[in-house]
Amino acid sequence: MPVTTIQPGHGRVVVRNDGFQNVFSELSAAYPLKLLSPSLPSSNLSIVYMLSYGGGLVGGDRMQMTAEVLDGARLALLSQGSTKVFKTRPGRRLSASVEKDPTTTQKLEVRVSPGSALLLLPDPVTCFRDAKYHQIQTFHLAKDSSAILLDWITSGRKSLGEEWVFSRYYSLNEVWVDGRRIARDATLLEERHAPDGTLCPRTLSETMAPYSCYANVIMYGELFQKTCLGLSTAYNAITVFKQPAPPALVWSMSSICDGKGCIVRVAAKETEDVKVWLGQALSDLEGVLGVDVYRRAFT
Questions:
Q1: What pTM was computed for the model?
Q2: Shortest CA distance to 178 belongs to which of 223, 119, 220, 229?
Q3: Which tens digit of pLDDT belongs to each residue from 164-174?
Q4: Is 204 helix (H, G, I), strand (E, B) or coil?
């Protein structure tokens, strides 16, 4: 059989359950994207770590990944450490087109068949000073499949005094069920520059203050109904009082698709606080992922 050539920065995952265990019919990637799948004792759960050589992405990198989850398989997509987006700089990499556009882009498209499940639980994106980052993620689900999708961003390298000083961040997540879009979540963060002779607008850092980490979670399907119900109960029990200062962490939730799913939003002054909150709020996932995988995702 002829060997299929993979474009630089592209990756593909196809996993199915053969009735006894999960089997990858394809797991491939090309520099600077790297995909690793450790073995697990579970018969229907597989993990794929999405990594980049050099510990991050450079201006102009183009990453594109597709995945299919079939025949009752469950796939968890994780990362090791935050996705670091370095500032634009001269040079050229195999997947880069810096001369044309210094924006780093990542595209992910996943299809989940009936009875299967996707768990997208990466670490947050961290954009360095002057970086430009675009992320587009599209998920095609069947009516009786399940998915949980975590998308979050930090303010940058706080230890170096970099907070919300990247140039542009854009993230778009779309979820479709049997061809009908049930969720479209877009985030655009960028510095605004005032025309000559006008008042200077607030900086991005001032706009995002006092929080340094924002997270969105989209859930759909029977596998995560208990989690959505628990969060809904907790959210409806919240009593709002006037406070002299913003709290260290705030969160909200809303139901989607006639209660078959939900969207949760979290913001906190520290990234670790968001991670701890997610670990507690999504504790039901331990029964889906297993103790070891759950701890890898949230500790």
A1: 0.92
A2: 220
A3: 999 999 999 99
A4: helix
